[in-house]
Task: structure prediction
Amino acid sequence: MKLLLIEDERTLSRLIVKGLQKSGYAIDTAFDGEEALELFDINIYDLIILDLNIPKIDGIDVLKHIRQVDENMCVLILSARSDIDDVVVGLDNGANDYVTKPFDFQVLEARIRSLLRRSFTQKNTVMSAADLKINTAQKIGFVHNKPIDLTKKEYAILEYFLFNKNRVISAEELMEHVWNSDVDLLSNTLKFHIHSLRKKIAKELGEVEAIKTVRGQGYIIQDHEVNQV
Result:
């Protein structure tokens, strides 16, 4: 999943980025409202973490712009504005959740997971395509209910496939959602990770190819294809 963190306190921003990257998220950062809107307008994000006290354009105005462009974008406000009136204003202007500073990182991460599950209409932490399954809370992948040893990037790719099972996902879309914006779209990074993920799945599924290539379009995971095992 790809996130945008809008936070002008650079030390705090680095700490949040470091913590979320350990959990496998790809993260872009913005330190003021103008930079935030520039990134939002040219990239695709699954969730935005928004501080309200940011330079150049206030956080509430950033939120209003986001809502004008995308009614479904997940926005979590992370702010030192802790008065009830501030929380109400944030939620009334379209925020999906509101966390006040100081905060517990585990709580922030749990709120992020909850919003992402809701955005993909998931009612629990488990998603599957026949014999493939992931637990989004524990960040673990399974084949035939047996855990498989995945890198963070491999898990992120499998998670995105299962969020979008039965739909062809282009290489560009995968790169946009699983990597930071500074990745080289012409590199072989994605092909390498797809190859590695396929090998690990194939150890349990045998000859069945769970991640299928659709020539000229991208990749897909389908329920019925995996069910042939």
The two ends are 29 Å apart (CA to CA). Confidence is low (pLDDT under 50) at residues 225-229.
